[in-house]
Structure formats: structure tokens, C-alpha cells
Specification:
With 402 residues, the protein is of the alpha/beta class. The protein has 2 domains: 22-265, TIM Barrel, CATH 3.20.20; 269-386, Beta Barrel (Lyase, Ornithine Decarboxylase, Chain A, domain 1). It has helices at residues 3-13, 22-34, 53-62, 71-79, 96-105, 114-124, 162-172, 191-204, 232-250, 262-265, 298-301, 389-393; strands at 17-21, 41-46, 65-68, 87-89, 108-111, 129-135, 157-158, 175-180, 212-214, 255-258, 269-280, 285-289, 308-310, 318-324, 332-340, 347-350, 371-376, 379-384. β14 and β15 form a beta hairpin. The longest helix is centred in the middle third of the chain and has 19 residues, at 232-250. The mean pLDDT is 94. Bound molecules: pyridoxal-5'-phosphate.
Length: 402
């Protein structure tokens, strides 16, 4: 997206505002599909990354399914026109009632807990199929909060418990049609996918009814220049080769699934904020903007790096700034950044804001969540209104006599 268009958007729709570029989402989708060469691969977009209905429609158009982690996300998917068959439900620590709710809707169920698996067998026997989420005990991921496949992780059923899974499956006649793993986000080492895959291939010998294998996600994208990213072409090549080999030894061609979130939408998003104050202190120059951790929490929560650009003065002299928010916390978007000279009123664009930006935003400090804008064919469309005071108090109940 050109800076001129971003400035126009800031002008027309105000700030803070998230802006998404359809073209970039489509490009990332194609890139991932093409990495697997001739091997057909199914992508279930992890909508927790970004769930605006228009984004979901773009991905549906591309041919994606959805990976949902809650019944509410399933509802968002259905509302966007996905059929239940295109949705995989991969929850964690949910009650059996929530699983039942999803079964009734008719989506694919991914079970990550032995006691739930047993309950599933008791209730459904062989009448409903399910997928099993295995924990391969591989340490991977950019940050401890997003590493989910290691030994201490709450996710999945341990790969060492396959024998126990098999007992339950046989006893109740459960049809396990899929095996799944997801080891974390921001995985740099592509071999992690291959090692995980090998473990799943070995586990597959216990499950004769398989129709698909899902290797999760965690593809890392570049947040700053020179960042190491997942070599998607290499991972694609290696996985499709090993998967072809696996299928021939398994005796049947299975479907190959992935469930990317960040890879598809991160780069497509920019977050536009306006500079309220430029404040020289004894140690640095702060640029204080009209947003904060309530709108983009990744820098504070994951220590994530988001490149920050002054689109109002792109050719100004680069100077050192710390860009901070307006929340009553030390909410810093970036320390010691070289940014072209900032004046009050300038619009800053934070890059890589498509994934886990808006969906993790909240109303802390009683501030409104940002607006969202979609850019398609060079035209900007408002796809979510900025909140209003009514949104803040909508569900509050004022007691009589207080
Ligand atoms: C969050 C999540 C994903 C997506 O991870 P990204 O790093 O955004 O690609 C995929 N699968 C599951 C089960 C998840 O919880």
C-alpha cells in the first residue's frame, strides 16, 4: 500500500485504524500453496489472527477452510459463508458441552485431551469421526507464550500416550480420521516441521481410518529487515516429499493440511496512529501516539518488533525516538527507533499489524477499539466502525438505589 493512500485513509476514517491489503493476503496464500509444488495441500486459516467477515470472505474465495478455537469463532465462520465441513474445531481445555455443540453444527472436531476422547467415545461411539491433536514434545516458537508443543505445554495429547489413545479408540470404536500437531508460532527452524511430521507418521500406524494429517502452523514472517523467516519453499518441498513417501507406506493417499494464521495476514496489515506529543526527556525523545497496548499488545506482551514508519514525513531526517502509547502503563511500541523526523499530528504506520492486532485489542482505559479498513483494487472500504461510548456501556447494568 502506498503512503499516499494510507494518509488518505487516516484522513478519511481517522486514527487509530487498522488497514488490510487484500492483494497481499492473496499473495501469501498462493505462496504457501505453491511451496508444496504439485502436492495438494489444504489450508485452514486460523481466524483468531484476524476475524473480520470480509477477511474471512477473501480467504474463502481463495479456497481456504478455517481453524476455529471456540464455538464463537465457528459462528463467525458460518456467518462468512463457510460450510461446517470446511471448519476444523481445535479447542483447548473446553468442556465436553462445547465439543457437543460443535459436533451438532457438523464441523471437524480436534480432540486434545484423553478424558474428552473417552467421553467422545462414550457419547458418539463410531457414529462421529474426530481428529486427535498430538503433542510431539518439540520446543519451538518465538516466545514461551506461543510455544505450545513442548513437554510442559498444556496442548495436545502426548505422543508417548498413543498406546493409551489406541486403547480408548478401539474400545469405543471411535473413527479417528485425522492426526494433528501445532508446535507454536514464529518457528524459524524449518526442520521442526519435518521432525514433527516424522513423529506423526510413526503414530499413524496406530490409526487405520485416517483421511488427513494436519501439521498446524507457526510459519514465521519477517518483522524487520534481515529477520530470519521460515523457508517456506524448503519446508514445502521436504514435507510434500516425506508425505508422499508416508502415504505409500500407509497404503492410501491422505490429505495434507496446514492451519496458518500469521503467515496469511500479518504483512497485509498496517496500524495507523497519530502523534499527540513529542516529548524530550533527560534520556530520550518520546513520540506519544493516540493508541496503546489496548489496540496493539504484541510489543508489550510478546516483546514483538513492529517496524514504525512516519508516513507524513517520509523523507525527513531520521532521528532516534521511543514510540509510546497513551495508556496508563509503560506501553512502548518501540524503543530507540530511527524514524524520519516526527512532528505533532504526523501519522505513523506500524507494520505487520494484520495478525493478532485487532483481535487482541480491548477497551482498557475506557478507550474505543480502532476502526478497520480494507484496501481492494486501490480502493479503501471501511469494514469496522470505530467504537462509540455506547459500545463501552452496552452490557453494563445500573442497579436501582445505588
Ligand atoms: C494460533 C494457532 C494457529 C495459527 O498460528 P500462526 O502462528 O498464527 O500461524 C494454528 N493452529 C492452532 C491450533 C492455533 O492455536
Amino acid at each position: 500500500m502506498e503512503q499516499q493512500l494510507l494518509l488518505q485513509i487516516a484522513n478519511e476514517f481517522g486514527t487509530p485504524t487498522y488497514v488490510y491489503d487484500v492483494e497481499l493476503i492473496e499473495k501469501q496464500y498462493d505462496k504457501l500453496i505453491n511451496a508444496f509444488g504439485n502436492h495438494e495441500v489444504k489450508l485452514h486459516y486460523a481466524l483468531k489472527a484476524l476475524n473480520n467477515i470480509n477477511i474471512l470472505k477473501v480467504l474463502k474465495q481463495q479456497g481456504a477452510g478455517l481453524d476455529a478455537v471456540s464455538n464463537e469463532e465457528i459462528q463467525l465462520g458460518l456467518r462468512a459463508g463457510f460450510t461446517p465441513d470446511q471448519i476444523l474445531f481445535t479447542p483447548n481445555c473446553v468442556s465436553f458441552e462445547e465439543i457437543q455443540e460443535a459436533v451438532e453444527v457438523g464441523v471437524h472436531i480436534n480432540i486434545d485431551n484423553l478424558s474428552i476422547l473417552e467421553k467422545f467415545g462414550q457419547v458418539y461411539g463410531s457414529s462421529k469421526a474426530c481428529c486427535v491433536r498430538l503433542n510431539p514434545h518439540i520446543m519451538a516458537g518465538g516466545n514461551s507464550n506461543i510455544s505450545v508443543g513442548h513437554i510442559d505445554s498444556k496442548f495436545g495429547i502426548s505422543i508417548h500416550q498413543v498406546k493409551h489413545i489406541e486403547r480408548i479408540v478401539k474400545h469405543y470404536g471411535i473413527r479417528v480420521t485425522g492426526l494433528h500437531m501445532h508446535t507454536g508460532s514464529d518457528i524459524i527452524d524449518g526442520d521442526v516441521f519435518l521432525r514433527g511430521a516424522q513423529l506423526l507418521y510413526e503414530a499413524a500406524t496406530y490409526f487405520p481410518d485416517l483421511e488427513f494429517m494436519d501439521f498446524g502452523s507457526g510459519f514465521k514472517v519477517a518483522y524487520k529487515e534481515g529477520d530470519i523467516v521460515t523457508n517456506i519453499e524448503r519446508v514445502g518441498q521436504q514435507i510434500s516429499d516425506s508425505f508422499t513417501e508416508f502415504c505409500s507406506s500407509y497404503g492410501r493417499k491422505l490429505e495434507l493440511w496446514f492451519e496458518p494464521g500469521k503467515f496469511l495476514v500479518s504483512e497485509a496489515g498496517k496500524f495507523l496512529v497519530k502523534v499527540n506529543v513529542v516529548k524530550q526527556t533527560t534520556s530520550t525523545v518520546f513520540a506519544g501516539v493516540n493508541s496503546g497496548q489496548n489496540h496493539l499488545i504484541r510489543p508489550m506482551f510478546y516483546n514483538a518488533y513492529h517496524h514504525i514508519e512516519n508516513i507524513s514525513n517520509p523523507s525527513g531526517e531520521p532521528k532516534l525516538y521511543s514510540v509510546v502509547g497513551n495508556i496508563c502503563e509503560s506501553d512502548t511500541f518501540g524503543y530507540d527507533r530511527m524514524i524520519s523526523e516526527i512532528h505533532v499530528g504526523d501519522i505513523l504506520a506500524m507494520h505487520n499489524a494484520g495478525a493478532y492486532g485487532f483481535t487482541m485489542s480491548n477497551q482498557y482505559n475506557a478507550r474505543f477499539r480502532p476502526a478497520e479498513v480494507l484496501v481492494n483494487d486501490g480502493k479503501a472500504h471501511l469494514i469496522r466502525k470505530r467504537e462509540t461510548f455506547e459500545d463501552l456501556v452496552r452490557n453494563e447494568i445500573e442497579l436501582e438505589g445505588f
